[in-house]
């Protein structure tokens, strides 16, 4: 990442990241990126509402089916509000995009930066990350992951507490998840990729001695009024930055609270949020948060649990 030059960044992003060491936040060496990502990297930018609508939205829509994606108009309005400076007090919402040397959108990462109670940590909640098909296997997703950490670090530095960013939080479908052989194969491949990055599942287990079993700690509320809750798996991807100590078990409840607070801030249906939150509260009762290998997550840990709604 230290091979990137100022002209590789739009001015808003460049100004935001002053003083941040990108290579320290990257899992991939500069020598490798020189051969993989840099040849097809024209510009990295903080995406505006108009840019998302005009240049990125079709790529976004092509990557996710209706039940798992947010409406484009809501994303555009949120970005416009952010650029206008009228989101004070809300979790920062960011889209980092990559364009090729011809100015075409190649990929993007869409995320909120959750400020956890206690004042120590800020955690980027990665909602979507995608790269167009012809540019996969070029480490552009790794560039996006690095930029997510960099932008979240800048937002964390801007807080009074001077928070640090210990990991990225995202949701995923575990090995073998899906209704078709193709979807199950894709889920398994994604799990393998996530595991190679050091990502681990954030789960719940009983505090009682002798009890066994793990359960998903994540319930996504329906994003539209008519949609029900969806149980998937939360995963944490540790930051490569050195000397950031944290206990994921101690962060669990704060993550849940910050996640649902951000959904309320963004105006998602309150009835749906309250239902999902209540389901998680019931699961957390008598249990503790812990992390485990993604490959070890089984269907019994997230399917047919109270409130699960498989699609």
How does this model look, in words?
- Helix 7 (248-265) runs antiparallel to helix 8.
- This protein has 2 domains: 1-111 and 129-162, Aminopeptidase (3-Layer(aba) Sandwich); 166-311, no CATH class.
- The protein starts with 10 loop residues before the first helix and ends in an 18-residue tail after the last strand.
- Helix content is 34%, strand content 22%.
- The protein is α+β, with helices and mostly antiparallel strands and 311 residues long.
- Residues 174-195 are annotated as: Disordered.
- InterPro entries: Acyl_CoA_acyltransferase.
Nearest-integer average pLDDT: 89
Class of secondary structure makeup: alpha+beta
What is the rounded distance between the termini?
A: 39 Å
User: What fraction strand?
Assistant: 15-25%
Gyration radius, rounded: 19 Å
Q: What's the total count of β strands?
A: 10
> Domains counted in the coordinates: how many?
2
Number of helices: 8
Uncertain regions spanning at least 5 consecutive residues = none
Shape: globular
Query: Could you describe the largest sheet, including whether it forms a barrel?
Result: 10 strands, mixed
Order of helices and strands: HHEHHEEEHEHEEEEHHE
Helicity level:
25-40%
